[in-house]
Design a protein that fits this description.
Order of helices and strands: EEEEEEEEEEHEEEEEEEE
Largest sheet: 9 strands, mixed
CATH superfamily: Carboxypeptidase-like, regulatory domain
Number of domains: 1
Number of helices: 1
Number of strands: 18
CATH architecture: Sandwich
Oligomer: single chain
Distance between the termini: 19 Å
Shape: globular
Length: 240
């Protein structure tokens, strides 16, 4: 299992104090019944309308403001993914609803041209999967600069880090503005369980199974070969 609590791209944590707080009352704004979020462009952070978000049984189209809303039944694994013309398909992490309001937050989506640039920089094996890691700072964790990720499994996977310009060209973590990823795993065996060790000075990882933003995190996500289809996955590491 991943040695951190992880979930798909969200704009940030509304936690107060040391522990991660998932209660709907503390997430800000009114309670929304269901699994919801907002799809935004990776570089501009502008909302993306007309993309499809599906959980396999239900499909919706993002509105003019980029938002979507899907059912979030209790006791059922939630594994949605999003995609559309001109954009890479993004698989959001597996989670279980811990309340009626499951908030995926802002989900950054890469245009196919930008996704192609990322793959050119990485020189990744396109028959393998690619996973973006987003970091949520909460509690005493004020900075992730200088942090690193060790990939314990699957064998053969690699990691690199995003610069503040949004390109995967760094040797260690930097403080990246939410909701952009701080790191990327590549050459990941599709369907393999992930086991990561996150080392960030002054921060600790929330344990796997932590409830956050209305969902219980599993630390896993659907992974597919990057090509054909421009497929990627995303996780957030909750730090405290």
């Amino acid at each position: 299992m991943i040695s951190a609590a992880m979930l798909a791209g969200c704009a940030g944590s509304n936690s107060k104090g040391g522990a991660v707080d998932m209660s709907a009352a503390d997430m800000g704004g009114p309670v929304i019944e269901g699994e919801h979020g907002r799809i935004v462009d990776y570089f501009s952070n502008m909302p993306l309308a007309g993309l499809t978000v599906t959980d396999g049984s239900n499909s919706v189209t993002t509105g003019a403001d980029g938002t979507f809303l899907l059912p979030a039944p209790m006791g059922v694994m939630l594994s949605p993914y999003a995609g559309g013309s001109g954009f890479a398909t993004l698989y959001l992490p597996d989670a279980m609803a811990a309340g009626v309001d499951v908030d995926r937050g802002d989900v950054p989506m890469a245009a196919t041209s930008n996704f192609g640039l990322e793959q050119n920089i990485l020189a990744n094996d396109t028959t393998q999967a690619l996973v973006h890691i987003l970091l949520v700072k909460s509690g005493a964790c004020a900075s992730v600069a200088g942090g690193t990720i060790t990939v314990n499994a699957p064998a053969g996977a690699h990691v690199t880090y995003f610069s503040t310009q949004g390109l995967p060209t760094s040797s260690q973590m930097a403080d990246i503005a939410a909701p952009k990823p701080a790191a990327v795993l590549y050459d990941v065996t599709p369907g393999a369980a992930l086991d990561l060790t996150i080392d960030v000075p002054g921060c600790t990882t929330a344990p796997a199974g932590t409830a956050w933003n209305g969902m219980t995190l599993t630390g896993q996500v659907t992974t597919m070969a990057t090509e054909p289809g421009d497929n990627a996955a995303a996780l957030i590491v909750v730090l405290q």
